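Incident log, support desk, overnight shift.

02:14 A customer reports that sequence design results differ from what the structure should imply. Their input is reproduced verbatim below. On-call engineer (initials T.W.) acknowledged and began investigating.
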């Protein structure tokens, strides 16, 4: 157990004392960078350590009655949904309030709306950039999420040299919604090689008058370019998967004829780089998923042991995005429980206390 206290719950690596930060609720340990990537949301108890308590306003009965500005005339910006019983922020499609357990019918009588289109959020430094500039910045930046709703310190994209990996970048690929540099830490280098190879292929097709291959090849590249330059939100590189067709087409051409030894060797090198790039992302996500699965399994097993020793268990749901906890209890066969707003001296489950 003593060793566990020095392990970051997010990345599973050791934490030095000068790089340690604790959840204010359950005292779970994180690296400072990992804690920032989670936006202060604890993976263990889901406590929002950075939550602005000024957004809540209590009435004389200590019930939260109003949360933020929810004027129906607000046009598309800064809109969210709230439970009208306790004022808790709700996720889209949420069925139960994560704080008080109230069932949400998703009607105007039961929720107050404050919607926001996060897909079109852009870092402030992109405000004066065109689509091509935004695309290139994204392609040659450190892999991370720099959207305003995710970053608490107005973080902007950090440009990097192709084929290099910046400090803290690898662990970023365990973030579900990584944005700039989302194709992997080595993809900017793959992009450069692909562009050079594409120019070489096109020139060769023209020189050899190989029109039956040149026309479809240019058609695919043209459609890809139009989609990149025309669609909003394309600075989040991982949301343009069709761009991956460029290195794939390049690879297919170079590996097509083994008799062309120089082209074939170059194709093998590109293939190995692409494999390494994909392996890094896969490894980081596999490790993160394994650590999370182990943690979740331990918490739920402890809960089941407690549940079997009592006739009815009291549950306190965490404050946001935790309606899935009720379905988890149902999957475990837990039927006899009572949802409480607050439980003293509670134990930690997974997105709930008991």
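02:41 Re-run completed on a clean worker. Output:
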């Amino acid at each position: 157990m003593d060793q566990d206290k020095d392990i970051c719950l997010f990345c599973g690596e050791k934490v030095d004392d000068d790089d340690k930060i604790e959840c204010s609720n359950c005292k779970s340990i994180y690296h400072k960078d990992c804690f920032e990537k989670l936006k202060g949301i604890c993976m263990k108890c889901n406590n929002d350590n950075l939550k602005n308590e000024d957004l809540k306003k209590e009435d004389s009965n200590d019930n939260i009655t109003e949360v933020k500005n929810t004027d129906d005339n607000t046009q598309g910006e800064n809109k969210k949904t709230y439970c009208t019983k306790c004022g808790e922020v709700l996720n889209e499609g949420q069925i139960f309030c994560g704080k008080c357990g109230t069932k949400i019918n998703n009607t105007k009588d039961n929720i107050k709306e404050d919607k926001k289109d996060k897909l079109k959020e852009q870092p402030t430094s992109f405000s004066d950039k065109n689509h091509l500039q935004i695309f290139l910045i994204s392609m040659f930046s450190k892999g991370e999420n720099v959207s305003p709703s995710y970053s608490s310190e107005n973080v902007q994209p950090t440009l990097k040299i192709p084929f290099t990996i910046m400090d803290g970048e690898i662990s970023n690929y365990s973030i579900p919604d990584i944005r700039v540099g989302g194709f992997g830490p080595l993809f900017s280098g793959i992009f450069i090689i692909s562009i050079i190879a594409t120019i070489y292929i096109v020139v060769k097709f023209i020189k050899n008058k190989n029109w039956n291959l040149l026309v479809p090849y240019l058609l695919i590249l043209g459609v890809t370019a139009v989609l990149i330059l025309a669609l909003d939100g394309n600075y989040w590189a991982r949301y343009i998967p069709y761009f991956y067709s460029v290195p794939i087409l390049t690879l297919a051409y170079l590996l097509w004829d083994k008799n062309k030894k120089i082209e074939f060797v170059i194709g093998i090198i590109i293939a190995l780089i692409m494999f390494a790039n994909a392996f890094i992302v896969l490894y980081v996500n596999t490790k993160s998923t394994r650590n999370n699965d182990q943690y979740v399994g331990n918490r739920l097993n402890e809960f089941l042991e407690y549940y079997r020793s009592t006739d009815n268990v009291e549950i306190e749901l965490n404050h946001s995005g935790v309606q899935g906890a009720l379905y988890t209890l149902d999957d475990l066969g837990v039927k006899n429980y009572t949802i409480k707003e607050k439980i003293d001296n509670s134990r930690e489950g997974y997105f709930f206390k008991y």
